Amino acid sequence: MQARESALTYHRAFGMRIEATGPIPGLVASSRSGVADLQLFLGSMPPWLNDRSAADRSVWYVSSARGETGEPNLRVWKLLDGAYCLLRYCDGTQFVADRSGSRVWATWPDQATLEDTATYLLGPILGFVLRLRGVVCLHASAIVVGDRAVALLGPAGAGKSTTAAIFARRGFSVLTDDVAALVERDGRVLVEPAYPRVRLWPDSVAALYDSEEALPRLTPTWDKRYLDLNEHGGRFHPRPLPLAAIYALGKRSDDQQAPFVEAVSTRDAMMGLIANGYGSRLLDGAMRAREFELLGAIVDRVPFRRVIPHSDPQKMTALSDVILRDFEAVAPLPVPRSAPSEARRV
């Protein structure tokens, strides 16, 4: 088990003030400001955990997906009558979170690194913590057009991150990649900023940058790469913005008309939001009720569209053109001239 770092570090992500027992790869350090919303204890577990017998645990969730050893990718247990939960991945990385979503402990096996652990922490673990705190999250990336957020919705592999990276290359800022945390404030639904990275598979990096080696690896042990938004024109937007439209990425098509945008019925929009809720398998009744309430408000207020990408990677940039043209039509507030002019210069 790893020893805890002695120096505390402070970060902001997904609208939370985070205090950690060491630096977290991918998060930008910030000054200490106010009481922490979340405390992260890296390299340690709660001291009481090993004193509890297996009888104190109840199974909450077991992933149907299996790792290389045949074990479920993820198992989750409730501890102490639900006051805490234990999440254990098949590679031995594990996390404990309290029910309020205010404290998280993390350990990882000797053969793993902190960077490996951060791939879990900055995705599913913080997504789960947000759900515990009552924040509704979607499987979505979000870009900034003018002063509004445009969400790119879809399951793993749909192309959310690749599309967000295309927009970043064209001069548009990015709010979040893969996990979109939504809050309701003053009658508007806002998207919280996450952290300044977009994660990309090597084939997407090669298509965008001509070589998969053009971007650094997330970890030494994994081939996935990341686009650092702070090093590429400062394309990370650090403040929440109102959600103005949602584009659900559909199945890639060889249709000559692709990429194109389709209208979606209210019912299909609601079903699409529910299907792409983040951490939905771990929701209890109260969480689910809150999710339905907010998603219903989104369907009433925010245009929901389906976009069909082309199968040809060379037409990825055309996808961003299609989204921008449609967005101007369905949410016709003025878009600053700087974004389109920057896009034309790329």
What does this molecule look like?
With 346 residues, the chain is of the alpha+beta class. The protein folds into two domains: 9-132, no CATH class; 136-345, Rossmann fold (3-Layer(aba) Sandwich), CATH 3.40.50.300. The protein is built from seven helices and 19 strands. An eight-stranded mixed beta sheet has the order 1-2-3-8-7-6-5-4, covered by helices on one side. The chain is globular, with a radius of gyration of 20 Å. The relative contact order is 0.12.
SSE arrangement:
Blueprint: E1 9-13, E2 16-20, E3 38-42, E4 57-62, E5 74-79, E6 84-89, E7 94-98, E8 103-107, H1 114-132, E9 136-145, E10 148-153, H2 160-169, E11 174-176, E12 179-185, E13 188-191, E14 197-200, H3 202-209, E15 217-219, E16 222-228, E17 241-249, E18 260-263, H4 266-275, H5 285-301, E19 304-308, H6 316-330, H7 338-345
Parallel strand pairs: 2-3, 3-8, 10-17, 17-19
Antiparallel strand pairs: 1-2, 4-5, 5-6, 6-7, 7-8, 9-10, 9-11, 9-12, 12-13, 13-17, 14-16, 15-16, 18-19
Helix pairs in contact: 4-5
* Radius of gyration, taken over Cα atoms and rounded to an integer in Å: 20 Å
Number of domains: 2
| Second-tier CATH architecture of the largest domain | 3-Layer(aba) Sandwich
The strand order across the widest sheet is 1-2-3-8-7-6-5-4
CATH class of the largest domain: Alpha Beta
| Percent range of helical residues | 25-40%
Annotation, overall tally of beta strands: 19
What characteristic shape results from the CA principal axes? Answer: globular
Q: Beta-strand percentage?
A: 25-35%
Number of helical segments with 4 or more residues: 7
SSE sequence, one letter per element? EEEEEEEEHEEHEEEEHEEEEHHEHH
Could you report the average pLDDT, rounded to the nearest whole number? Answer: 88
Decide which structural class fits the backbone: alpha+beta
From the N-terminal CA to the C-terminal CA, the straight-line distance is 48 Å
The CATH topology of the largest domain is Rossmann fold
Give the name of the CATH superfamily of the largest domain: P-loop containing nucleotide triphosphate hydrolases
